[in-house]
Amino acid sequence: MSRYELLNEKTNPADIAFDSAGAPDPGHATYATPAITLDSVTRHFGRFAALRGVSANFSSGRLYTVLGDNGAGKSTLLRIIAGLLQPTRGRVEVLGTTNLKSVRPWIGYMGHASLLYDELDAMENLRYFAGLYGILGNDGLCARAMTTVGLEPALKRRVGQYSQGMRQRLSLARAVLHDPKLLLLDEPFSNVDVASAHEMVRLLGAMRDNGKTVFLVTHQPSLLEGTADEFIHMTAGRIDQRDTRDRSGDPQTGMDPRPRTEARR
Amino acid sequence: MSTLSAVLRSTLAKDLRMEWRSKDAINSMLFFALLVVVIFSFSFSPTAEESRQIAGGLIWVAFLFAAVVALNQTWARELRNQVLDAYRVSPAPANSLFLAKAIGNFIFVGVLEVLMAPLFVVFYNLRPVGPAWQLGLVGALATWALVVNGTFFAAMSIRTRSREVMLPLILFPISIPALLAMVESTTAILTGDASPVFWINLLAVYDVVFTTACLLLFETVLNAE
Protein backbone atom coordinates (compact mmCIF):
# COMPACT_ATOMS: atom_id res chain seq x y z
CA MET A 1 0.00 0.00 0.00
CA SER A 2 1.49 3.37 -1.01
CA ARG A 3 1.99 6.29 1.33
CA TYR A 4 -0.83 8.19 -0.37
CA GLU A 5 -3.22 5.26 -0.14
CA LEU A 6 -2.43 5.05 3.55
CA LEU A 7 -3.08 8.76 3.98
CA ASN A 8 -6.31 8.52 2.03
CA GLU A 9 -7.52 5.80 4.38
CA LYS A 10 -6.98 7.90 7.48
CA THR A 11 -9.72 10.19 8.58
CA ASN A 12 -8.26 11.47 11.80
CA PRO A 13 -5.47 14.03 11.51
CA ALA A 14 -4.30 12.82 14.89
CA ASP A 15 -3.51 9.55 13.13
CA ILE A 16 -1.68 11.47 10.48
CA ALA A 17 -0.13 14.25 12.47
CA PHE A 18 0.79 12.17 15.45
CA ASP A 19 1.38 8.71 14.11
CA SER A 20 4.80 8.30 12.59
CA ALA A 21 4.14 4.65 11.76
CA GLY A 22 2.67 3.69 8.42
CA ALA A 23 4.52 5.92 6.02
CA PRO A 24 7.78 4.75 4.50
CA ASP A 25 10.86 6.07 6.24
CA PRO A 26 12.22 8.94 4.13
CA GLY A 27 15.88 8.48 3.53
CA HIS A 28 16.11 6.06 6.48
CA ALA A 29 16.09 9.01 8.88
CA THR A 30 16.08 7.80 12.47
CA TYR A 31 16.82 9.37 15.79
CA ALA A 32 20.46 8.42 15.23
CA THR A 33 20.72 10.23 11.90
CA PRO A 34 20.24 13.99 11.67
CA ALA A 35 17.05 15.31 10.10
CA ILE A 36 18.96 18.30 8.76
CA THR A 37 22.66 18.70 8.07
CA LEU A 38 24.06 22.04 7.00
CA ASP A 39 27.62 22.25 5.78
CA SER A 40 29.11 25.73 5.27
CA VAL A 41 25.80 27.06 3.92
CA THR A 42 26.12 30.56 2.55
CA ARG A 43 23.43 32.58 0.84
CA HIS A 44 23.93 35.95 -0.82
CA PHE A 45 21.25 38.34 -2.05
CA GLY A 46 23.29 40.55 -4.32
CA ARG A 47 26.11 41.80 -2.12
CA PHE A 48 24.24 41.07 1.11
CA ALA A 49 25.16 37.82 2.84
CA ALA A 50 22.01 36.52 4.54
CA LEU A 51 23.76 33.33 5.68
CA ARG A 52 27.50 33.11 6.28
CA GLY A 53 28.87 29.58 6.28
CA VAL A 54 26.31 27.95 8.59
CA SER A 55 27.27 24.40 9.62
CA ALA A 56 25.08 22.40 11.98
CA ASN A 57 23.31 19.09 12.54
CA PHE A 58 19.73 18.82 13.75
CA SER A 59 18.58 15.45 15.04
CA SER A 60 15.29 13.77 14.18
CA GLY A 61 12.40 13.83 16.63
CA ARG A 62 13.30 17.11 18.30
CA LEU A 63 11.71 20.54 18.46
CA TYR A 64 14.12 23.32 17.51
CA THR A 65 13.37 26.98 18.04
CA VAL A 66 15.35 29.48 15.99
CA LEU A 67 15.71 32.94 17.50
CA GLY A 68 17.35 36.11 16.31
CA ASP A 69 16.83 39.72 15.33
CA ASN A 70 15.28 40.76 12.04
CA GLY A 71 17.74 40.12 9.23
CA ALA A 72 19.62 37.45 11.18
CA GLY A 73 18.94 34.90 8.42
CA LYS A 74 16.28 32.77 10.14
CA SER A 75 13.73 32.77 7.34
CA THR A 76 16.42 32.37 4.70
CA LEU A 77 17.70 29.31 6.55
CA LEU A 78 14.18 27.88 6.74
CA ARG A 79 13.56 28.48 3.02
CA ILE A 80 16.84 26.83 2.10
CA ILE A 81 15.98 23.75 4.17
CA ALA A 82 12.53 23.68 2.51
CA GLY A 83 14.15 23.78 -0.91
CA LEU A 84 12.58 27.12 -1.80
CA LEU A 85 15.99 28.80 -2.04
CA GLN A 86 19.28 27.44 -3.25
CA PRO A 87 22.36 28.16 -1.16
CA THR A 88 25.02 30.22 -2.90
CA ARG A 89 27.58 27.85 -1.43
CA GLY A 90 27.52 24.85 0.86
CA ARG A 91 25.61 21.61 1.22
CA VAL A 92 22.14 20.96 2.65
CA GLU A 93 21.04 17.45 3.54
CA VAL A 94 17.44 16.87 4.63
CA LEU A 95 16.12 13.51 5.87
CA GLY A 96 19.25 11.78 4.66
CA THR A 97 19.49 13.19 1.16
CA THR A 98 20.79 16.26 -0.65
CA ASN A 99 18.11 15.80 -3.32
CA LEU A 100 15.52 17.96 -1.60
CA LYS A 101 12.97 17.34 -4.35
CA SER A 102 12.81 13.69 -3.35
CA VAL A 103 11.83 14.50 0.26
CA ARG A 104 9.09 17.02 -0.54
CA PRO A 105 6.32 14.57 0.49
CA TRP A 106 7.79 14.49 4.01
CA ILE A 107 8.27 18.20 4.55
CA GLY A 108 5.56 20.48 5.92
CA TYR A 109 6.21 24.18 5.41
CA MET A 110 4.42 27.13 6.95
CA GLY A 111 5.68 30.42 5.58
CA HIS A 112 5.59 33.94 6.90
CA ALA A 113 2.63 34.58 4.61
CA SER A 114 -0.41 32.33 4.95
CA LEU A 115 0.11 30.35 1.69
CA LEU A 116 -3.67 30.16 1.40
CA TYR A 117 -6.16 31.36 -1.21
CA ASP A 118 -8.21 34.25 0.17
CA GLU A 119 -11.00 33.58 -2.35
CA LEU A 120 -11.65 30.02 -1.09
CA ASP A 121 -13.03 28.86 2.23
CA ALA A 122 -10.96 26.77 4.63
CA MET A 123 -12.20 23.37 3.47
CA GLU A 124 -11.69 24.27 -0.18
CA ASN A 125 -8.14 25.35 0.61
CA LEU A 126 -7.30 22.19 2.56
CA ARG A 127 -8.93 19.95 -0.04
CA TYR A 128 -6.80 21.53 -2.76
CA PHE A 129 -3.52 21.35 -0.86
CA ALA A 130 -4.24 17.78 0.24
CA GLY A 131 -4.65 16.96 -3.45
CA LEU A 132 -1.12 18.23 -4.13
CA TYR A 133 0.11 15.44 -1.83
CA GLY A 134 -2.07 12.81 -3.47
CA ILE A 135 -4.72 12.87 -0.73
CA LEU A 136 -7.94 13.04 -2.70
CA GLY A 137 -11.54 13.31 -1.59
CA ASN A 138 -10.76 12.94 2.11
CA ASP A 139 -12.98 15.64 3.58
CA GLY A 140 -12.96 13.90 6.95
CA LEU A 141 -9.21 14.35 7.18
CA CYS A 142 -9.45 18.05 6.24
CA ALA A 143 -12.26 18.63 8.74
CA ARG A 144 -10.37 16.95 11.56
CA ALA A 145 -7.23 18.93 10.69
CA MET A 146 -9.25 22.09 11.16
CA THR A 147 -10.65 20.87 14.45
CA THR A 148 -7.16 20.02 15.63
CA VAL A 149 -6.04 23.63 15.21
CA GLY A 150 -9.21 24.95 16.80
CA LEU A 151 -11.17 25.95 13.71
CA GLU A 152 -14.75 25.05 12.92
CA PRO A 153 -14.90 22.90 9.75
CA ALA A 154 -18.44 24.07 8.96
CA LEU A 155 -17.22 27.67 8.69
CA LYS A 156 -18.12 28.78 5.16
CA ARG A 157 -16.40 32.16 5.30
CA ARG A 158 -13.69 32.74 2.75
CA VAL A 159 -10.17 32.88 4.13
CA GLY A 160 -9.90 36.53 3.04
CA GLN A 161 -12.42 37.32 5.77
CA TYR A 162 -10.50 35.46 8.49
CA SER A 163 -8.59 37.20 11.25
CA GLN A 164 -4.81 36.90 11.10
CA GLY A 165 -4.83 34.40 13.96
CA MET A 166 -7.36 32.17 12.21
CA ARG A 167 -5.23 32.24 9.07
CA GLN A 168 -2.19 31.18 11.05
CA ARG A 169 -4.05 28.24 12.51
CA LEU A 170 -5.40 27.22 9.12
CA SER A 171 -1.92 27.56 7.69
CA LEU A 172 -0.66 25.15 10.36
CA ALA A 173 -3.46 22.71 9.48
CA ARG A 174 -2.35 22.91 5.84
CA ALA A 175 1.28 22.26 6.79
CA VAL A 176 0.54 19.11 8.85
CA LEU A 177 -2.21 17.69 6.63
CA HIS A 178 0.03 15.23 4.77
CA ASP A 179 1.84 13.75 7.76
CA PRO A 180 5.25 15.39 7.29
CA LYS A 181 8.32 14.00 9.02
CA LEU A 182 9.89 17.44 9.14
CA LEU A 183 7.87 20.53 9.95
CA LEU A 184 9.34 23.94 9.06
CA LEU A 185 7.44 26.85 10.58
CA ASP A 186 8.18 30.54 10.06
CA GLU A 187 6.73 32.62 12.90
CA PRO A 188 3.65 30.45 13.45
CA PHE A 189 2.51 32.44 16.50
CA SER A 190 2.51 35.94 15.02
CA ASN A 191 -0.86 37.62 15.58
CA VAL A 192 -2.21 34.55 17.37
CA ASP A 193 -3.88 35.11 20.74
CA VAL A 194 -2.08 33.68 23.78
CA ALA A 195 -4.49 30.80 24.40
CA SER A 196 -4.38 29.69 20.76
CA ALA A 197 -0.60 30.03 20.69
CA HIS A 198 -0.30 27.76 23.73
CA GLU A 199 -2.63 25.28 22.04
CA MET A 200 -0.43 25.35 18.92
CA VAL A 201 2.65 24.76 21.08
CA ARG A 202 0.95 21.78 22.72
CA LEU A 203 0.14 20.38 19.28
CA LEU A 204 3.71 20.84 18.08
CA GLY A 205 5.03 19.21 21.25
CA ALA A 206 2.77 16.22 20.67
CA MET A 207 4.00 15.92 17.10
CA ARG A 208 7.59 15.99 18.31
CA ASP A 209 6.76 13.31 20.89
CA ASN A 210 5.53 11.15 18.04
CA GLY A 211 8.79 11.36 16.16
CA LYS A 212 8.36 14.43 13.98
CA THR A 213 11.13 16.96 13.74
CA VAL A 214 9.88 20.50 14.27
CA PHE A 215 12.04 23.44 13.24
CA LEU A 216 10.44 26.77 13.92
CA VAL A 217 11.38 30.42 13.76
CA THR A 218 9.82 32.74 16.30
CA HIS A 219 10.22 36.03 18.11
CA GLN A 220 8.26 34.63 21.08
CA PRO A 221 10.63 32.13 22.74
CA SER A 222 8.76 32.24 26.04
CA LEU A 223 5.91 30.27 24.45
CA LEU A 224 8.27 27.38 23.77
CA GLU A 225 9.85 27.19 27.24
CA GLY A 226 9.25 23.70 28.53
CA THR A 227 8.47 22.35 25.09
CA ALA A 228 11.43 23.13 22.83
CA ASP A 229 14.41 20.77 22.95
CA GLU A 230 16.82 23.39 21.76
CA PHE A 231 17.00 27.13 21.19
CA ILE A 232 19.20 28.21 18.32
CA HIS A 233 20.36 31.80 18.34
CA MET A 234 21.26 33.44 15.04
CA THR A 235 23.08 36.70 14.53
CA ALA A 236 24.11 38.27 11.22
CA GLY A 237 23.73 35.07 9.18
CA ARG A 238 25.44 32.76 11.67
CA ILE A 239 24.35 30.35 14.40
CA ASP A 240 26.18 31.74 17.38
CA GLN A 241 24.62 29.74 20.22
CA ARG A 242 22.67 26.54 20.79
CA ASP A 243 20.91 26.02 24.12
CA THR A 244 19.68 22.51 24.76
CA ARG A 245 16.82 22.21 27.27
CA ASP A 246 15.20 19.37 29.08
CA ARG A 247 11.41 19.13 28.94
CA SER A 248 11.02 21.21 32.10
CA GLY A 249 12.63 24.10 30.30
CA ASP A 250 15.85 24.05 32.27
CA PRO A 251 19.16 24.34 30.50
CA GLN A 252 20.59 20.86 30.08
CA THR A 253 24.18 19.87 30.53
CA GLY A 254 26.03 16.67 29.80
CA MET A 255 23.36 15.17 27.51
CA ASP A 256 23.59 17.69 24.72
CA PRO A 257 24.71 15.85 21.60
CA ARG A 258 26.10 19.12 20.36
CA PRO A 259 27.46 21.26 23.18
CA ARG A 260 27.12 25.01 23.02
CA THR A 261 30.82 25.59 22.61
CA GLU A 262 30.89 23.30 19.57
CA ALA A 263 28.00 25.15 18.00
CA ARG A 264 29.90 28.43 17.98
CA ARG A 265 31.56 29.06 14.66
CA MET B 1 0.56 10.23 -14.93
CA SER B 2 -2.36 9.77 -12.55
CA THR B 3 -0.82 12.29 -10.12
CA LEU B 4 -0.31 14.72 -13.00
CA SER B 5 -3.91 14.48 -14.16
CA ALA B 6 -5.34 14.54 -10.62
CA VAL B 7 -3.40 17.68 -9.69
CA LEU B 8 -4.21 19.21 -13.08
CA ARG B 9 -7.93 18.63 -12.54
CA SER B 10 -7.94 19.97 -8.99
CA THR B 11 -5.89 23.04 -9.95
CA LEU B 12 -8.13 23.74 -12.94
CA ALA B 13 -11.27 23.30 -10.83
CA LYS B 14 -9.83 25.64 -8.20
CA ASP B 15 -8.97 28.31 -10.80
CA LEU B 16 -12.39 28.08 -12.44
CA ARG B 17 -14.08 28.35 -9.05
CA MET B 18 -12.03 31.40 -8.14
CA GLU B 19 -12.73 33.05 -11.49
CA TRP B 20 -16.43 32.24 -11.22
CA ARG B 21 -16.51 34.03 -7.86
CA SER B 22 -14.42 37.05 -8.77
CA LYS B 23 -14.94 37.28 -12.56
CA ASP B 24 -11.79 39.42 -12.59
CA ALA B 25 -10.31 38.04 -15.81
CA ILE B 26 -13.45 37.59 -17.86
CA ASN B 27 -14.90 41.01 -17.04
CA SER B 28 -11.72 42.91 -17.83
CA MET B 29 -11.12 40.93 -21.05
CA LEU B 30 -14.70 41.41 -22.19
CA PHE B 31 -14.68 45.12 -21.54
CA PHE B 32 -11.35 45.55 -23.33
CA ALA B 33 -12.36 43.50 -26.40
CA LEU B 34 -15.70 45.33 -26.58
CA LEU B 35 -13.92 48.68 -26.65
CA VAL B 36 -11.63 47.53 -29.46
CA VAL B 37 -14.57 46.31 -31.57
CA VAL B 38 -16.59 49.48 -31.11
CA ILE B 39 -13.66 51.88 -31.62
CA PHE B 40 -12.45 50.18 -34.79
CA SER B 41 -15.97 49.95 -36.13
CA PHE B 42 -16.57 53.70 -35.69
CA SER B 43 -13.07 54.61 -36.89
CA PHE B 44 -13.19 52.79 -40.22
CA SER B 45 -16.92 52.30 -41.04
CA PRO B 46 -15.95 49.54 -43.50
CA THR B 47 -18.15 48.07 -46.22
CA ALA B 48 -18.98 44.33 -46.08
CA GLU B 49 -16.18 43.46 -48.49
CA GLU B 50 -13.62 45.64 -46.66
CA SER B 51 -14.75 44.08 -43.39
CA ARG B 52 -13.98 40.60 -44.65
CA GLN B 53 -10.50 41.78 -45.65
CA ILE B 54 -9.60 43.38 -42.31
CA ALA B 55 -11.71 41.42 -39.81
CA GLY B 56 -9.16 38.62 -39.40
CA GLY B 57 -6.57 41.09 -38.20
CA LEU B 58 -9.00 43.04 -36.02
CA ILE B 59 -10.41 39.95 -34.34
CA TRP B 60 -7.09 38.42 -33.41
CA VAL B 61 -5.40 41.64 -32.35
CA ALA B 62 -8.40 42.34 -30.09
CA PHE B 63 -8.22 38.83 -28.61
CA LEU B 64 -4.43 39.01 -28.20
CA PHE B 65 -4.61 42.28 -26.28
CA ALA B 66 -7.56 41.07 -24.22
CA ALA B 67 -5.84 37.76 -23.43
CA VAL B 68 -2.89 39.60 -21.91
CA VAL B 69 -5.24 40.92 -19.24
CA ALA B 70 -6.25 37.37 -18.25
CA LEU B 71 -2.70 36.08 -18.48
CA ASN B 72 -1.47 38.67 -16.01
CA GLN B 73 -4.23 37.69 -13.57
CA THR B 74 -3.32 34.00 -13.80
CA TRP B 75 -0.19 34.17 -11.72
CA ALA B 76 -1.13 37.21 -9.66
CA ARG B 77 -3.50 34.92 -7.72
CA GLU B 78 -0.63 32.58 -6.92
CA LEU B 79 1.56 35.40 -5.68
CA ARG B 80 -0.95 36.74 -3.16
CA ASN B 81 -0.05 35.21 0.22
CA GLN B 82 2.87 33.48 -1.56
CA VAL B 83 0.64 30.50 -2.36
CA LEU B 84 3.07 29.47 -5.09
CA ASP B 85 5.53 28.48 -2.33
CA ALA B 86 3.02 25.91 -1.07
CA TYR B 87 2.98 24.40 -4.54
CA ARG B 88 6.78 24.50 -4.83
CA VAL B 89 7.33 22.61 -1.56
CA SER B 90 4.78 19.96 -2.52
CA PRO B 91 5.61 16.87 -4.61
CA ALA B 92 3.00 17.87 -7.22
CA PRO B 93 4.42 17.92 -10.77
CA ALA B 94 5.22 21.40 -12.09
CA ASN B 95 3.66 20.59 -15.45
CA SER B 96 0.27 19.93 -13.82
CA LEU B 97 0.26 23.52 -12.65
CA PHE B 98 1.31 24.82 -16.07
CA LEU B 99 -1.23 22.77 -18.00
CA ALA B 100 -4.03 23.66 -15.58
CA LYS B 101 -3.22 27.35 -15.95
CA ALA B 102 -2.98 27.10 -19.75
CA ILE B 103 -6.25 25.18 -20.02
CA GLY B 104 -7.90 27.64 -17.63
CA ASN B 105 -6.77 30.55 -19.79
CA PHE B 106 -7.91 28.67 -22.91
CA ILE B 107 -11.38 28.41 -21.38
CA PHE B 108 -11.44 32.09 -20.34
CA VAL B 109 -10.32 33.33 -23.77
CA GLY B 110 -12.63 30.80 -25.45
CA VAL B 111 -15.59 32.15 -23.50
CA LEU B 112 -14.57 35.66 -24.53
CA GLU B 113 -14.42 34.62 -28.20
CA VAL B 114 -17.86 33.01 -28.03
CA LEU B 115 -19.31 36.13 -26.44
CA MET B 116 -17.57 38.50 -28.85
CA ALA B 117 -18.19 36.60 -32.09
CA PRO B 118 -21.80 37.81 -32.51
CA LEU B 119 -20.66 41.39 -31.93
CA PHE B 120 -18.02 41.10 -34.64
CA VAL B 121 -20.65 39.72 -37.01
CA VAL B 122 -23.01 42.60 -36.24
CA PHE B 123 -20.50 45.47 -36.23
CA TYR B 124 -18.58 44.30 -39.32
CA ASN B 125 -21.43 42.66 -41.20
CA LEU B 126 -19.42 39.43 -41.53
CA ARG B 127 -20.45 36.30 -43.39
CA PRO B 128 -17.78 33.74 -44.27
CA VAL B 129 -17.46 32.90 -47.93
CA GLY B 130 -15.17 29.92 -47.26
CA PRO B 131 -16.00 26.83 -45.13
CA ALA B 132 -17.26 28.21 -41.82
CA TRP B 133 -16.40 25.10 -39.78
CA GLN B 134 -12.73 25.87 -40.34
CA LEU B 135 -13.20 29.02 -38.28
CA GLY B 136 -13.79 26.80 -35.25
CA LEU B 137 -10.56 24.91 -35.89
CA VAL B 138 -8.59 28.13 -36.41
CA GLY B 139 -10.18 29.55 -33.24
CA ALA B 140 -9.10 26.57 -31.14
CA LEU B 141 -5.55 26.38 -32.52
CA ALA B 142 -5.04 30.15 -32.40
CA THR B 143 -6.39 30.46 -28.86
CA TRP B 144 -4.08 27.69 -27.65
CA ALA B 145 -1.14 29.43 -29.40
CA LEU B 146 -1.94 32.63 -27.50
CA VAL B 147 -2.46 31.08 -24.08
CA VAL B 148 0.29 28.48 -24.01
CA ASN B 149 3.02 31.05 -24.62
CA GLY B 150 1.19 33.66 -22.61
CA THR B 151 0.89 31.40 -19.57
CA PHE B 152 4.57 30.50 -19.80
CA PHE B 153 5.86 34.04 -20.23
CA ALA B 154 3.49 35.35 -17.58
CA ALA B 155 5.08 32.84 -15.18
CA MET B 156 8.51 34.07 -16.25
CA SER B 157 7.63 37.68 -15.63
CA ILE B 158 5.86 37.32 -12.26
CA ARG B 159 8.97 38.10 -10.27
CA THR B 160 9.89 41.14 -12.34
CA ARG B 161 9.05 44.55 -10.98
CA SER B 162 6.79 45.69 -13.85
CA ARG B 163 5.29 42.40 -14.93
CA GLU B 164 2.23 43.97 -16.62
CA VAL B 165 4.58 45.71 -19.07
CA MET B 166 7.06 42.86 -19.30
CA LEU B 167 4.55 40.24 -20.47
CA PRO B 168 3.52 41.94 -23.75
CA LEU B 169 7.14 42.87 -24.42
CA ILE B 170 8.12 39.18 -24.36
CA LEU B 171 4.89 37.65 -25.66
CA PHE B 172 4.06 39.77 -28.71
CA PRO B 173 7.31 39.27 -30.67
CA ILE B 174 7.26 35.51 -30.14
CA SER B 175 3.57 35.37 -31.15
CA ILE B 176 4.17 37.00 -34.55
CA PRO B 177 4.30 33.73 -36.55
CA ALA B 178 1.14 32.50 -34.83
CA LEU B 179 -0.57 35.87 -35.26
CA LEU B 180 0.29 35.88 -38.95
CA ALA B 181 -1.11 32.36 -39.35
CA MET B 182 -4.32 33.09 -37.45
CA VAL B 183 -4.97 36.35 -39.33
CA GLU B 184 -4.22 34.86 -42.76
CA SER B 185 -6.28 31.73 -42.17
CA THR B 186 -9.25 33.71 -40.79
CA THR B 187 -9.10 36.16 -43.70
CA ALA B 188 -8.88 33.25 -46.18
CA ILE B 189 -12.00 31.67 -44.67
CA LEU B 190 -13.93 34.94 -44.52
CA THR B 191 -13.10 36.00 -48.09
CA GLY B 192 -12.86 32.57 -49.71
CA ASP B 193 -9.99 33.93 -51.84
CA ALA B 194 -7.41 31.31 -50.85
CA SER B 195 -7.09 28.04 -49.02
CA PRO B 196 -6.40 28.40 -45.29
CA VAL B 197 -4.87 24.92 -45.01
CA PHE B 198 -1.22 26.05 -45.04
CA TRP B 199 -1.84 28.58 -42.29
CA ILE B 200 -3.84 26.10 -40.22
CA ASN B 201 -0.99 23.61 -40.49
CA LEU B 202 1.46 26.31 -39.47
CA LEU B 203 -0.67 27.08 -36.42
CA ALA B 204 -0.79 23.39 -35.48
CA VAL B 205 3.00 23.07 -35.77
CA TYR B 206 3.47 26.27 -33.75
CA ASP B 207 1.20 24.86 -31.03
CA VAL B 208 3.05 21.55 -30.84
CA VAL B 209 6.51 23.15 -30.79
CA PHE B 210 5.74 25.77 -28.17
CA THR B 211 3.65 23.47 -25.96
CA THR B 212 6.55 21.01 -25.89
CA ALA B 213 9.10 23.73 -25.18
CA CYS B 214 6.97 25.25 -22.41
CA LEU B 215 6.44 21.85 -20.76
CA LEU B 216 10.16 21.13 -20.84
CA LEU B 217 11.13 24.49 -19.38
CA PHE B 218 8.35 25.23 -16.93
CA GLU B 219 9.85 23.50 -13.91
CA THR B 220 12.96 25.66 -14.25
CA VAL B 221 10.82 28.79 -14.47
CA LEU B 222 8.72 27.74 -11.45
CA ASN B 223 11.75 27.18 -9.26
CA ALA B 224 13.69 30.24 -10.43
CA GLU B 225 14.52 32.59 -7.58
Structure write-up:
The complex is a heterodimer of chains A (265) and B (225). Chain A is α/β, with parallel strands linked by helices and 265 residues long. Chain A has one domain: Rossmann fold. Helices cover 29% and strands 24% of the residues of chain A. Chain A contains eight helices and nine strands. A six-stranded mixed beta sheet of chain A has the order 5-6-7-3-8-9, with helices on both faces. The longest helix of chain A is centred in the C-terminal third of the chain and has 16 residues. With 225 residues, chain B is mainly α. At the A-B interface, helix 4 of A face helix 1 and helix 4 of B.
What pattern of helices and strands is seen along the backbone of chain A?
HHEEEHEEHHHEHEEEH
Fraction in helix of chain B: over 70%
The total beta strand count of chain A reads 9
- Which class best fits the helix and strand makeup of chain A? alpha/beta
- What ranges of chain B have pLDDT less than 50 throughout 5 or more consecutive residues? none
Compact description:
The complex is a heterodimer of chains A (265) and B (225). With 265 residues, chain A is α/β, with parallel strands linked by helices.
